[in-house]
Design a protein that fits this description.
It is built from six helices and four strands; from the N terminus they run H-E-H-H-E-E-E-H-H-H. The chain is mostly helical and about 170 residues long.
């Protein structure tokens, strides 16, 4: 995937032209909550995607899906805790850090839609430019390897975006 979202934006334009919807689909792994937050919030805003579908809800081939202890590893010699969006239970699912990141992204998207509607109703061009600049300030580059995501910089830029949205909403 390209970090500048150009390819996704082109796909969205083609889908719109064809009267179709397009969603973003990505693999959950290694507990990267900021990455999941980005894909369910800011990425959708940047590309115009109609939704996000994370791949893997629950995947385990091990005695204990809750552990990273390799003594409980599977026949493929790895653990599966990081591939759980929600842990299995006999009752309600137990949330994971993946799920928390997804929820934060959904909230970012909701706040952005509210802020955008307030900006549109005010009709202030400067506010739209600030909104666009705040969204553009989010720094994310898809890593060459899924095991090397840099969470800190992305998490900080997402928090700055959220703070900006709240400031617009609270005016």
């Amino acid at each position: 995937m390209r970090s500048d979202t150009t390819a996704a934006t082109n796909i969205m334009s083609e889908a719109e032209y064809l009267g179709e919807k397009a969603t973003h689909y990505w693999q959950l792994y290694n507990e990267h909550p900021a990455r999941n937050r980005y894909y369910t919030g800011a990425y959708l805003l940047r590309t115009g995607s109609d939704g996000a579908i994370p791949y893997v809800y629950q995947a385990f081939h091990t005695v204990d899906p809750y552990t990273t202890d390799l003594r409980y590893r599977s026949s493929v010699d790895r653990y599966f805790k990081n591939f759980m969006t929600a842990y299995p239970t006999t009752g309600k699912p137990i949330s994971t850090i993946h799920w928390e990141g997804i929820q934060a992204g959904i909230n970012d998207y909701r706040y952005a839609m509210l802020a955008q509607s307030l900006i549109d109703s005010d009709g202030t061009a400067g506010d739209q430019a600030n909104f666009d600049a705040s969204l553009d300030a989010i720094q994310y580059t898809e890593p060459a390897s899924p095991w090397h995501v840099v969470e800190g910089r992305l998490a900080e830029s997402l928090e700055s975006f959220r703070a900006y949205l709240i400031s617009v909403i609270n005016r």
